[in-house]
Amino acid sequence: MLGYVLRRLISVAFTFIAVSIIIFLMMHSVPGGPFDGNDMPVSEAVRARMMERLGLDQPLHVQYLKYMWGVLHFDFGVPFQSPGETVLELLSRAWVPSLILGGLGVAIGAPLGILLGMAAALNRNSWIDYLASAFATLGLTVPVFVISMLLILVFAVWLNWFPASGWPSPDRWVLPIAAYAAIPLATYARYTRSAMLDTMSRPFVTVLRAKGLSERRIVFQHVMRNSAIPLVTVFLPMFIGTATGSIFVEAMFRVPGLGAYFVSSIENRDYPLEMALMLMITFMYCIAYLLSDIVYALINPRIRVGGQA
Amino acid sequence: MTDVTTQVETPVVAPHQRQRSPLWFAWQRFLSNKAAVAGGAVLSVLILMAIFAPLITPVPPTAQSFLTESLAFPSSEHWFGVDNLGRDFYTRIVYGARVSLSIGFIAAAFSVLIGIPLGALAGFFGGTVDWVIMRIIELFSVVPPLLAAMLLGALSGGGYPTIVAIAALFGWVQVCLLVRAQVKALREKEFVRAAQALGASPGYIIRRHLIMNSVSPIIVGFVLAIPLAMMLEASLSFLGIGVPPPTPTWGQMISEGIDYMFFYWHLAVFPTAALAITVLATSLFGDGLRDALDPTLKGR
Amino acid sequence: MPLVEIEDLRVSFRQYGGAVDAVRGVSFTLEDGESLGIVGESGSGKSVSCSALLRLLPGTAEVTAAKLKLDGIDVAKARRDDLTRLRGKSAAMIFQDPMSAFDPVFTIGHQICETIMAHRNVSRRAALNEAEELLLRVEIKNARDVLNYYPHQLSGGMLQRAMIAMALSCRPKVLIADEPTTALDVTIQAQILQLIKKVQAEFGMALIMITHDLGVIAETVDRVLVMYRGEVMEQGEVQQIFDAPRHEYTKQLLASLHASFEPSREAADDTPALELRELAKTYIVRRRSGLRVRHVDFQAVDGVSLALPKNRILAVVGESGSGKTTTGMMAMRLTDVTRGQILVDGTDISTLSREALKPWRKRMQIVFQDSYSALDPMMTLTQIIAEPLHIHGMGTAREQQEKALEWLERVGLDRSFASRYPHELSGGQRQRVAIARALILGPDVLVADEPTSALDVTVKAQIIGLLKRLQAEMGLSMLFISHDLSTVKSLTDSVVVMYRGRVVEEAPTERIFADPRHPYTRALLAAVPATNPRDKRERTFLSADEILAGIPRMGAAEAGTAANDAPQLVTVAPGHRVETYVTA
Amino acid sequence: APALAQTTILAPGQNTVGTYMDYMKTVYDRATFAELLQIPIATFDKNFELTPMAAESWEQSEDGLTWTFNLRQDLVWSDGEPLTAEDYVYALERAATGGYDFAWYWDFAGGIAGWAEVTAGEADVDTLGLEAVDDYTIEVTTNAPKPYLPSVMSLWYPVPKHVVEELGDDWALSVDTIISSGPFEIESWEKSNNSVVFTASDSYAGPWPAQIDRLEVDPTLGAPEVGLPAFLAGDADYSFLNTGQLPVAEARYPDGIRRNAVFATSYLSFDMSSEPFDDVNVRRAFYYAIDRDELTSTVLRDIAIPAGSILPPGYPGYNPSVVEQAVFDPEMAQQYLADAGYPDGEGFPELEIWIREEGGYNSAIVPAMAQYLQAEFEENLGVSLTIRSQPSAEWMDGLLNKRGKLFISPYEYDYLDPSNFYGIFYNGGRHDYHVDAYDEVVAEADSESDWDTRYELYAEAEGIMIEEGMIVPLVHPITTAVISEELGGEASTPNELGFTPLDRLGHYFFTHLTK
Ligand SMILES: Nc1ncnc2c1ncn2[C@@H]1O[C@H](COP(=O)(O)OP(=O)(O)OP(=O)(O)O)[C@@H](O)[C@H]1O
Ligand SMILES: Nc1ncnc2c1ncn2[C@@H]1O[C@H](COP(=O)(O)OP(=O)(O)OP(=O)(O)O)[C@@H](O)[C@H]1O
Ligand SMILES: [Mg+2]
Ligand SMILES: [Mg+2]
């Protein structure tokens, strides 16, 4: 296991570096710089002065190496759009609402999705199945900003049950989390259904029945566990992916999370912040994949003992 | 030698049965799946509508012929109403199918074209090939498509080609992973050994056995790639970097429709419904296709 | 009241292009404690009938019966929880295919325990103890470890035994054993049969034994039911069936038991068709002790040399796991060779590249042991059988198809099977398809790995007849890997006995049956089931240590070779070599 | 005051990114309503009358080059330090050396002597034409006479020199170190979305003290899609509206609807240095090819009015005779295009029309207008265009580096004088235009002290602009908002022109609002 984790870590490092180079190059090839967003252009002299101050006058590879050297020391620089704090401080501040939103969204959506998928699989081709499938498809096809808007219109404007938007108090979390949960819910319902159906057609299920095990035990213990194997590989990356927050949900519900920074850092050419955000996602995805591999190995004895990485 | 080989087997099945090709059976299986047939029918209608859009719409999609009636609600004259620029909304929706469907299908086709070979190679050969392909996959799964689209869009000027490229570039990962896993599992199966024993080349084995046995993940991947691409288009439109107007796309109409949702509901409802119906039809059709093409699923 | 009452059971499977009537009016009853044997050709509906009794058939099956009662309960009308109570308790089933019968993500111990605990109110600890005991009784020596193993860590034979243990753990009123010993070599088979009989006596359990091995029938049952084409041909006391079969099919069945074939003609050319020289295979396996994982070498095949003369049939027999399949796979260059040479017609092919190998592939074919996974589930039978022609680009698509259909018939399958898929076939049917595919290219050398293990006797005889005929017609040389000693005896020219990766004895067929020298060979022959219920007897079994201790010893002078610490093959008669300790 | 009696106003903001809570540090990424914390030299009231704030009075020297501002003496910083002339002078000196996006403003608009040299780093900051004569007197020297200088000074806010010298620019980053001189003090500042909470200042002794206790501003409410639901749910006291929301809001709050003619203009601009827009006839053709009345009565109904001049109606210098020239005349347009060698649009290259991704009121106007124009040009000129939408950095880059050829450019006034709008085309300016005749007239007008002469000169300048086809004025935006019935005070009612400028006149609005 240790060797395996080490090997994975090397791959992760590789990906990390590759992503950082690609993103860095892409960012700097986009026309326009951090001082070009204004209504009136900045004079050459002033621009040169500003670029020098931010170190943007140096050759790209020097900038890159400097940045990465900083990263090695957990120094991600200072965001152009929020001077007075470091990128790290900004992230740790803005990440909290995104984490709550994403975390609760998945924590609520995924189990519901799994239940829905199970219900559909166990009642294949019944109305429950069709309803669940339709629900799941809607969740996947109606853009989340439409769902958000609908939730606001119905529950805040029309029924007046919840505040329309905002974040400070938990009663304001309900609608955004509901909007957010739609995605994992739909995804999970779909995946669970097909994984369960796959498992249930395997011969060992017949054997379990023949042994006289109750249907409940068969489903909840054996079928679930076997179906979990394909699910894990989608679950963790998705869970972590939510930590980046949904740009759309956050925008519609005025959640002061990370989402807006993804867009604004690109639009404002906020190189340090953009780089840090990308690296953060990379890092989290890599960790998530690593974790999901490990969890996968833990629940799949074939990998655990058989030892093919 | 005792003669026991005689007359043991006589046909049980009715003699009139003719030789049928596997495709015929697949077709029969498909036809018996009502939902899939319905999905297929809806999809064909949508595709036909997109192709013959000029024939079934009263005006061109960008013609601002009804400026004085702009924002009018659905009526017998304008089935889906009129948009803020005085364009017949039904026409816009029909033409929007062109963009959304083509983005969806091109992206899905690309993702299958890239995903299958790469996945099969990685799964079949393992080792270094697998390592390299897995790293590429990791690169693509790590960068969120939306952000990549923003950056690439800025680099290339954005628009339709960029969106298709992005959707294709990011859609294949799923297909590739699915195929890889499947091929990896199948590689150990004895029928692969059997083919080797018959002198089949790796290319032949991948083509004929491994990929054929991976139809179900491939179709699942294909079907999933379609809504993903369409949703990507919608999301990018919401951020204002989608296909440039006045080309009608559903995503763009939805994100604009949001602004009008309070009162002129038709501007949001119709494109959203169009998108949802298309994706629903596609996935029903895809599921049916998968079940039909996979004979071992028959019993289910 | 009888334990099992079946009257006019009919099962048909819905299918595109017509339904398959698998069972067409089967009736029988079974009393408490009685043993019933069901024999019949492959695909005659034996498994399906029994599955119907427990209502385990897939949704495409349509089951009708005038009466379908188990333990007094009408199975056809039983509710779900009634069924749960019936299953396991009233009747337990040993499934035909043990490889896929276990849930891959739970340990063997867990799966046996949960079975015990589902039926009896015992603690987990007690259940574990009982499970261990059961595993020991089915001859799994390291039972304590095996409890913690996952299914994929066990060999097919071990899985089959674990399956038996699991079925017995239910202490059912009737045990349905569907081919319970196909994956086992005869020695283990004999032990298992003995165990089943003992347990039956202990608990007064009834038994339904489904098999195509008349020897097994002779050894274990009181009454026999003969099935053919979904119908019961006749039933009666076991002795009566053997002595005075009434139905034509039964007569054929019994006749096939005593089938024999003419010995092969001597070939003029004496270069062997296939020769293996000191062939060895080492697997690297992981052993873990605590957190550390060690990689150790495992000698699956340890310096095997053998020669298959042209136009001959050479049997390879031996204990399960002794390396027979591995040897065959290496001979076909399907598994990398660790050491040694493979000579085909005098040419060493062990180092040829894939491209260079392609012409040889046409001349050498293999029939795989596991016919289920050897057939691509996505291809129709025609496609499968025609595939070799396709790969080698022989003939047009039409011709290929026509030829495939021809071969379908040659292996005794109807043309109507052409567009079926492998999963729609019974085990025997699949095996025949695999054989047809191997033979369609007209190879010179055939490695047949248990080609008849899933066949009923009549079809087996037919297939063997076919192989024999082809051998004569095409000059086929065959390496025949098998557990089935009666077939070996009647079919092959000479026999190689393998034990733990090595060849321990080698001799012409007649000689080895008449004068076995190696203790393992003797044990093997002693375990062959009787061919008539009259001859059944109590047996004793040798342990591995006893076998090692029994290896013959010889002086160097007598053996004609130098002394050695390790045993070596010594010629004791023309063509008869035995593994012997040569002492100074 | 006890918490219960507090009046709090919840307002939408504009910009979700805010760097410094310092009006004088940046322009575009400034923290929300940083101006409410400080007191400017002067500012505009609801009818756009310039009102003295920190300055009690000012006078211009004989030669018109020197201005003297006399400050109030009772002003203090919230930390108790007196607010002096030095704080104002220091604010601009710092902007000239450390800031960047004021360069144009104080150079062209303010015309402060030495500004260009100092910002370019060529001259010392002491050479700037600014001087604190004593604690309460400021002298400003300009390059040329600037009759409208006081209006420019509406953007002159102080910085606390004593704090900045200690903490540097960082003083404006944390609520703990920010001090104020204006009607409000800051209580909290959420940087993720640039939302702030202000409280009425106790120490403020200047004109226009706050009439409410607290002001909460949340820029995420700026978008009508988000703002209106929040308003309906009681989370905001007013909200801007988009076209789709108007019917609902009008039905529910017939008395709460407020409109404002923003002093802003959207116009077409060109790359005049290359084909096809180097030909004045092409540019003129575009000028005549637009039916502004149809545009604003249909597509932009309720959100814009036709623009015949760069100056919006009501803006000083607005000249009806200029506006009259902007007619829709497809035949004339065709003629011009034919003269340019593209009869019926034949041979005209396929061009992109570049639009900028916009927030605020422009987000509803620009994309829709682009589509309308595209259809119009196609129909009236036979010219086909594609629309290319770009974030502001890329758009500006395209404009300056002439990567695009045709742009829809929006501009909103900075200070209330025609020179503001004419200046954006002056000598390079925003578009790298160099039309000598135009530059001469504008320069002359800028330094002319007689208003009527200036008025004429600007009309002449715009005449040149039309002659040369430098721009095609399109529309002036209008914003619509709905305000809560609870809001009262002078600021909540329309001005003489029937418009309610709301937070466009932040200083006035938030100090004249009650609840
Ligand atoms: N799921 C199924 N769908 C269609 N046909 C089936 C299915 N299962 C079994 N059959 C058919 O039913 C018949 C009886 O099958 P069954 O498994 O009972 O044979 P069997 O007597 O057990 O043979 P064997 O000795 O080879 O195991 C066969 O012809 C088989 O092809
Ligand atoms: N890939 C592998 N890795 C490790 N060990 C293996 C592998 N394949 C086979 N073995 C081991 O090699 C030995 C020989 O296996 P083989 O399949 O040749 O046995 P066999 O004689 O054919 O047995 P059976 O009669 O049960 O089919 C067994 O102990 C098996 O566990
Ligand atoms: Mg069977
Ligand atoms: Mg074997």
UniProtKB/TrEMBL annotation, chain A:
> What GO biological process term is on the record, naming one?
transmembrane transport
Domain named ABC transmembrane type-1 is located at 95-292
InterPro entries this protein is in? BPD_transp_1_N, MetI-like, MetI-like_sf
Record bears the keyword Transmembrane helix: yes
Give the membrane topology, semicolon-separated if more than one: Multi-pass membrane protein
**Gene3D superfamilies assigned:** MetI-like
Q: Where in the cell is it found?
A: Cell membrane
Q: Does the keyword Lyase apply?
A: no
Query: Where are the membrane-spanning stretches?
Result: 12-30, 99-122, 134-161, 173-191, 231-255, 275-299
Source domain of life is Bacteria
**Family annotation (PANTHER family):** INNER MEMBRANE ABC TRANSPORTER (PTHR30465), OLIGOPEPTIDE TRANSPORT SYSTEM PERMEASE PROTEIN OPPB (PTHR30465:SF74)
State the name under which the record lists this protein: ABC transporter permease
TrEMBL record, chain B:
Give one Pfam hit by family name. BPD_transp_1
Q: Which InterPro entries match?
A: BP-dependent_transpt_permease, MetI-like, MetI-like_sf, OppC_N
Q: Which organism is it from?
A: Pelagovum pacificum
Q: How does it sit in the membrane?
A: Multi-pass membrane protein
> In which broad location class does this protein mainly occur, judging by the first location in its UniProt entry?
membrane
Q: Which SUPFAM superfamilies match?
A: MetI-like
**Family affiliation:** Belongs to the binding-protein-dependent transport system permease family.
Output the GO biological process annotations, alphabetical, semicolon-separated: peptide transport; protein transport; transmembrane transport
Q: Which residues cross the membrane?
A: 35-56, 99-124, 136-154, 160-179, 218-243, 263-285
**What is the annotated localization of this protein?**
Cell membrane
Domain ABC transmembrane type-1: from-to ranges:
97-286
**What Gene3D superfamilies does UniProt report for this protein, alphabetically?**
MetI-like
What's an example GO cellular component term for this entry? Answer: plasma membrane
Tell me the protein's name: ABC transporter permease
The alphabetized UniProt keywords are: Cell membrane, Membrane, Peptide transport, Protein transport, Transmembrane, Transmembrane helix, Transport
Family matches, as PANTHER family: D,D-DIPEPTIDE TRANSPORT SYSTEM PERMEASE PROTEIN DDPC-RELATED (PTHR43386:SF1), OLIGOPEPTIDE TRANSPORT SYSTEM PERMEASE PROTEIN APPC (PTHR43386)
The record ties this protein, via PROSITE patterns, to: ABC_TM1
UniProtKB/TrEMBL annotation, chain C:
| PROSITE patterns from the UniProt entry | ABC_TRANSPORTER_1, ABC_TRANSPORTER_2
Q: NCBIfam families under this entry? A: PRK10419.1, PRK11308.1
Q: What is this protein called?
A: ABC transporter ATP-binding protein
CDD domains documented for this protein: ABC_NikE_OppD_transporters
Location within or outside the cell: Cell inner membrane
Alphabetized, the UniProt keywords read: ATP-binding, Cell membrane, Membrane, Nucleotide-binding, Transport
Q: Where is it found, in Gene Ontology cellular component terms?
A: plasma membrane
Say yes or no: keyword Membrane present: yes
Membrane topology value: Peripheral membrane protein
Q: What's the family?
A: Belongs to the ABC transporter superfamily.
Residue limits of the ABC transporter domain?
A: 4-254, 274-525
Q: Which SMART domains match?
A: AAA
Q: Taxonomic lineage of this organism?
A: Bacteria, Pseudomonadati, Pseudomonadota, Alphaproteobacteria, Rhodobacterales
Q: Name one Pfam family in it.
A: ABC_tran
A Gene Ontology biological process term: peptide transport
**What's one GO MF term for it?**
ATP binding
